[in-house]
Fold:
Amino acid sequence: MGEELDRERARRLNRELHRHEAMSRAARALARRDLSERELGERLQRSRVAPALRDEAVARLAGVGLVDDDRLARRRAELLAERGSGDALIRHDLAGRGIAGEVVEAALAGLEPEHARAARILRARGPSLKTVRYLARKGFSEESIGDPVAEGAPPAVR
Structure:
């Protein structure tokens, strides 16, 4: 009826069980939210998945498109820009997620220019020192803040 489980078969079965567990943990993590390759690897590391199995799971999921740093960077950059963030804050957020620099820059290039976003916020909030501070906290560059302020500010703010 059944076959005897020799030592080699037991080892292969154990390896497959660990591989399956690594993929299950990765899938559960991705079910909650989109993760970068680095973030997924870190999650699996915290779950004490062996490095080889961790790398294999991340590579397999990236290969089928479930983990995609380009897609994550574009979506996250768009979301942060919609929420009023400047390029520096977006760049910092994406780099903190382990996204490669060239992928971050490509995501930023796909956004509305920073100075246009700053000008829109300035129009909505009004040209004031408080707005300038707000834009600086949100990661806008001095150039992006200064140009709209100089164009639309009353003489006292210039």
